[in-house]
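FORM 7B - TANDEM STRUCTURE REPORT

SECTION 1: FIRST PROTEIN
SEQUENCE AND TOKENS:
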Amino acid sequence: MKKVKECKKSKELITAIAAAKAAGKVIMKHYGKLHQIRVKSARLGIVTETDLLAQKKIKAVIRKNFPKAEFFAEEDKNHPKISHLTWVVDPLDGTTNFSRSIRTFTVSIALLRNHRPVIGVVFDPNSGELFYAEKGCGAFANGKRISVSSVSKPEHGLFSISIPRRAKTRKENYTSLKKLFGIMGGLRNFGTAALHLSLIAAGRIDAYLEYGLYAWDSAAGIVLVQEAGGRITDYKGCKYNMFSGESLVATNGKIHRQVIRELNK
């Protein structure tokens, strides 16, 4: 694992953590209650009033410290072009779980500098577990440094591959599952991309694959995985583009080549 320097939390990271926790309180206040559910589109899934309230809280907390903050947030109707500094927000990653009273959902906040994520915060309001990372400073869970697992053989690893509702992405992810089914040790799925990536960073699962993610799904988790010593590419093993809506492969790095090889057979 690469060496990282000891860093004092930046104002941006402290703010992102505060915003994530504030959104978590909003979410848990509404958890288990009846929700007005609206289908955004076949591509973007569903939204509840809690998503909107949590996003509003995140923006308010960030703008208190950064009045000119610009956002690329899931529940905005119009998504602006990414500027030099942009906050990428998924106020409730795992809305379907939340709406069905399944306790697996997170708050995900990232800061992009020149289109690259440099800060990532993922908060699980159910357990209170907080994952965070800042580029060059390592990854942490509840204040303790974390790192990816040491698993070096796919057959000993835990994988996660989503089967989403959208037809194209469902087909692509199912194809990946079939290709890897024979070499993976186990399979888990939690219904929130941000949590999957956080668990890679924390060494609890070893590989996560999904086709059709959006920037708000992956931006925070990218920082966590990379700072924890993991690796992220597309299905071809090339640089991952979080704005492409294409494929993501995140692993502990030690089984990455084997996974990519199987995907491209």
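SECTION 2: SECOND PROTEIN
SEQUENCE AND TOKENS:
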Amino acid sequence: MQAIMETIYFAGGCFWGMEHFFQQVQGVVSTETGFANGNEDLPAPTYEQVYTDTTGYAETVKVEYDEQHVSLAFLTRMFFAAIDPLSLNKQGEDEGTRYRTGVYYLSEEQKAVIESVFAEEQKKYAEPMKVELLPLRNYYPADEYHQDYLNKHPDGYCHLPLSLFRWAREAKGER
């Protein structure tokens, strides 16, 4: 069976933990930390620039996955399990617009799938979720220091609980 590769972008607070979380999910082929949907007059921002909260960029994880093994709907549900969708510009102890939550899609087909999951999730809350659903405007990889950070620094900071990583490893995604 030939792999059917797709790409989606998730912003869920600090990208170190979000990247490590998605690395655990069966069917995810690769991940990369970076910055998405920022000011278009600032191409290729540095971490230091994004950290100022003046660039409009969000810490984001690029997720490449094999659609034969995991669906976009499943990945989006996993994303919601790892964030607080009611928190604006804050996840865990991390605050600022760079830590906002969002899903950035590449096609109208992806948008339709994601909108369906958003509608399911919204039913769980009385107030509107604070999660962006937007087309990907721009994306730039973070420097090497930030790639696979928790694999290189297992005791490094992460706002996600360790139990969530175990759960992600054991989750069975639908196709």
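SECTION 3: OBSERVATIONS ON SECOND PROTEIN
The longest strand covers residues 28-36.
The chain has a mean pLDDT of 95.

SECTION 4: SIGNATURE
Preparer initials: ____
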